[in-house]
Every structure is written in structure tokens, then in C-alpha cells.
Specification:
mainly alpha, 11 helices, elongated
Length: 355
Amino acid sequence: MPDRRDVSDAVRWFWVAFWSTLLILLLLYLYVQAKVQLVSEVPPSPEASPPALSQTYLEKLQQVVPEVFREVRGDLDVAVAEIDALVSERVDAAFAPVYRAIPDFLDFHYSLLGEYAELAAAASDDIGRDLQRILFEDTDFETGFQHRLVEITHGADAIESEFFRLLRRRLHERMADHPAPQPEKLTELADIVMQDTRQRFGTGDLVLKGTGALVGGGAVATALAKTVGAKAATKLAAKAAGKTAIKATGVGGSATAGAAAGLLCGPAAWICAPVGGAAAAVAAWFATDKVVLEVDEYFNRDAFEAEVRGAIDTERLRVRDTLRSSYHARLHAMVSFNESRLRDMTTRELIEQSP
């Protein structure tokens, strides 16, 4: 049976712990309330807001905006010309390896191996296969072309940014003679408009995404292979017709001569004669092809090279003009949006200030 004194001590310590816990909780509560009170008494930091444009300033700005945009049309033409020059230079650089590979393609085209390869390709309806390989795959045209497109994007973005810096400077110059100029507010307003413009139009990467199917390296190679391949097929057909007539007599005569030469084999003539005739026929076949190729190359190589260059020129100019038109449209649309946005924001602020 527990001692009465032990029970009394246990009860006493229980109540000590109980009231001590309540006291600690009370102190914590009071501490938290005090901190909340201190925080609530600290005034909130004022939200950064630019000074409002005066009504007279807004009225002048509304008048100046269309005038400034008319004044910078000449500068816009300069920016467009700079983009044109940039696109031309980069596209020409992208196609340079293709032009340098033309002699290699012609050497292949006017070789026995090349002729038979092209005949095999024509049979499989892929006459431009070797042209595409020599001019585009062996030169790694796709990689170089994509690199040039990135350079065009960055260069065009820089030209656009410079034009809009000039536009902002013109606005500041025209508004500087106002009795109470507010250049900081005008800068902020122009920043907002430019940010809206960038959000809508993005960077020049969007131009490439929109024209990718038209100017992609693969599309260029495919178009050229079809164009030049069709020309090569026509020439191959003409050469084949000419060689057919030659071989009809030349190869047959060579076979007869080979059979006669087989008589020299003596007792083995029954074996030697057919072999000799076949060998002579094959040799005559290749000799005829070689002669026809050399004659064709002598008379037609320069003209065929001009046709190949002309086909490449056509594709190069198509790519160049497609990119130019896309960047022209983008820049003009950005300028129009910029003017409209600036005018609308000015008008809205005037309306809000009206009594």
C-alpha cells in the first residue's frame, strides 16, 4: 500500500507542472501578440508608381506620335536595306560550298561510273540522288545553312533594336520643348510599348519557324535535285539513243572479230572463240560509252554547268527573297503596332484625366 506522504508529493508536483505549463503558454501568447502589434504598426512601403503625365503633355504627345512615325520612314527604309544586305550576304555564304562542289558533280556526271549510277537512279525514279549527295550532303550544306539562319536572326534583331532606339530618341527630341517636360515618364511609356511589341512579335526566331518549310536546307536540296535531275535525265536519254545506234553495229562487229580471233586457240577454239567474242563485245561496249561521254563532255559540259548554276541560282534567290519578305513584313508590323499602342495608351490616359 503506497505511503500517504508519497501520494501527497505526487499530487503537489502534478499541480506545479500544470500551472507552470499554463504560465509558459500564456507568456508565449503575449509574446506573439506583441510581435503582431509591432508589425501591424509598421506602415506598408508605398508601391512604386511613376508620376502621372500632365494633360497638356499628353495632348502634345498625342499630336507628336504620328508626326514622328512619319519622320522615321526614311530610317525604316535604311533598316530594311540593312536587313536585305544581311540576308543576301549570309545566304550567299551558305550556298558557297554548293557552288564550289559543281566541278565535282560534273566530273562524276561525265564519268562511266557516274553515267551508270545516274541510269540506275533514273530507273528507280531518283535521278537527282547523286547531285543531292555531292552538292549538299558531302558539303554538309544543312549544318552551314542553319548556322547562317541563326546569324540572320541575331543580326536582324540588332537592326530592329537600333531602329526603335532611334524612334525613342526622336520622341524625346520632339517633346523636349514642352514647358514641363517629363522625360522619365516618356521613357517608361516607351518601355511599356516596346515590351508589348516584343511579347506580340517575339524575336526573329519566329520568322524562321514560319518559313522553315520554305527555306530549310532539306527543302532546298530536294528542289535542286528535282530541277537539275530532270535536266540530267533528258541528257541521259539523248546520249542513250545515240549510243544505241553505235553499239548496234560496233558491238556486233567486235563480237565477230573476237570469234575469228578465237581460231588462233587451235584445239580449244570451241571454248576460246565464244569467250574472245564476248570479251571483245564488252570491251567495245565500254569503249563506245567512253567515247560518247568524252564527245558529250567536250561539246556540252559548259552548257550543262551553266544550267546547274542557273538552277542553284534560282533556289538561292528564292530562299533570299523569302527571308527578306518575312523580315520586311515583321519589321513593318512591329512599327505599326508600336505606333498604334503608343497612341492608344496616350488617348486612354487623356480620357482617364478628363473630368
